[in-house]
């Protein structure tokens, strides 16, 4: 089993133990990485780009990774297949995009009403999540690693205010993953549209509402210029992206390069999380000032209750005859129940007592 919890000090020691002269004689490995994202989609595209830079620097140029944006390879939702088939050595995407191919991949991105980013990363690295993810992706002959979190995402931009459940019925909405199934159960028409088509779809009325990420990424998309009702989240409390690595190619790397790659992925994932947090704080300050018509809203309690009920029903349905999926969801649920007590004691009560 891969030692995914390798620390920076291990990689540093490995690098320090290799002289520049000896590394110069070693084979140079040239890899390619395909992303689901366009090259301007920061910080999603930044995570693999920064990872590749770290790898090249730490390996003294022995491992070089070319990062291709979706507009180059033209298959934003084909990343898993391209890494599995060997057309690309690595990928950067989101695990829930593969639920149509393998339902067991779904929970490794995020689940509605699930764990926050710190909670989920604790589960990955200390609660058995990495081992379960390895079990799922093994049959696809790829390795999967956490690839950067967006944190708690906003619930979406809506043209019209949602006051009752009836207001949702018949709406067309872009919302991916398991949350999309919940919304479909509540009467919405759900679609998954590539990022480059989202603004036009909302502007032309192809969709009535959409969720993307949060202020830091939404501001560049311009949704706030079209829809003024901005709802708080419930569906992606800790969306984690993923790095995919072709298992056969990984095993061909020298051990020191394997450890450098693992370390760079882990560091760049954390960097993306804090970068996005900063971006959202800056972007919201700008939105709030320049577009005072934006109304930040929370879905009414009857709507939230209906979402939770649909979530519970669907979770029971999807695990039938799927023991591995049930094992993953049970593991997440048990860990969330345990870790949430600390989250409440530390973050929630602090914020509750100190917000204006």
From TrEMBL:
Q: Which InterPro entries match?
A: DctP_fam, SBP_TakP-like, TRAP_DctP_sf
Entry's Pfam families?
Answer: DctP (PF03480)
Please cite one Gene Ontology biological process associated with this protein: transmembrane transport
Can you supply one Gene Ontology CC term for this chain's record? tripartite ATP-independent periplasmic transporter complex
Q: Name one GO molecular function term.
A: metal ion binding
What keywords does the record list, in alphabetical order? Metal-binding, Signal
Which first-to-last residue range defines the signal peptide?
Answer: 1-24
Q: Where does Na(+) bind?
A: 212
Q: Where does substrate bind?
A: 153, 174, 211, 236
Q: Which domain of life is it from?
A: Bacteria
- Descriptive protein name: ABC transporter substrate-binding protein
This protein's species is Poseidonibacter ostreae
């Amino acid at each position: 089993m891969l030692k995914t919890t390798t620390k920076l000090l291990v990689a540093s020691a490995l690098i320090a133990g290799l002289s520049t002269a000896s590394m110069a004689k070693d084979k140079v490995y040239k890899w390619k990485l395909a992303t689901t994202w366009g090259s301007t989609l920061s910080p999603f595209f930044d995570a693999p780009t920064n990872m590749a830079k770290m790898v090249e620097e730490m390996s003294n140029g022995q491992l070089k990774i070319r990062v291709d944006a979706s507009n180059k390879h033209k298959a934003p939702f084909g990343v898993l297949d391209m890494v599995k088939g060997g057309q690309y050595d690595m990928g950067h995407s989101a695990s829930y995009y593969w639920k149509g191919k393998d339902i067991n991949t779904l929970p490794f991105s995020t689940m509605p009403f699930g764990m926050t980013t710190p909670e989920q990363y604790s589960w990955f690295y200390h609660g058995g999540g990495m081992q379960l993810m390895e079990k799922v992706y093994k049959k696809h002959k790829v390795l999967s690693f956490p690839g950067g979190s967006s944190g708690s995402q906003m619930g979406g931009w809506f043209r019209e205010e949602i006051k009752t459940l009836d207001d949702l019925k018949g709406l067309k909405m872009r919302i991916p993953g398991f949350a999309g199934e919940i919304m479909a159960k509540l009467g919405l028409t759900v679609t998954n549209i590539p990022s480059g088509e989202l603004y036009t779809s909302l502007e032309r009325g192809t969709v009535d509402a959409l969720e993307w990420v949060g202020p830091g990424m939404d501001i560049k998309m311009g949704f706030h210029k079209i829809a003024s009702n901005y709802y708080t989240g419930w569906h992606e409390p800790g969306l984690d992206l993923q790095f995919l690595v072709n298992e056969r190619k990984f095993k061909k790397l020298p051990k020191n390069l394997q450890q450098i790659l693992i370390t760079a992925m882990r560091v760049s994932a954390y960097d993306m999380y804090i970068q996005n947090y900063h971006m959202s704080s800056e972007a919201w300050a700008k939105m709030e000032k320049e577009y005072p018509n934006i109304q930040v809203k929370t879905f009414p309690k009857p709507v939230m209750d209906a979402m939770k009920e649909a979530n519970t029903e669907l979770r029971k349905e999807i695990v039938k005859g799927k023991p591995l999926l049930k094992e993953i969801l049970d593991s997440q649920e048990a860990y969330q129940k345990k870790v949430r007590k600390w989250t409440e004691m530390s973050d929630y009560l602090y914020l509750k007592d100190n917000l204006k």
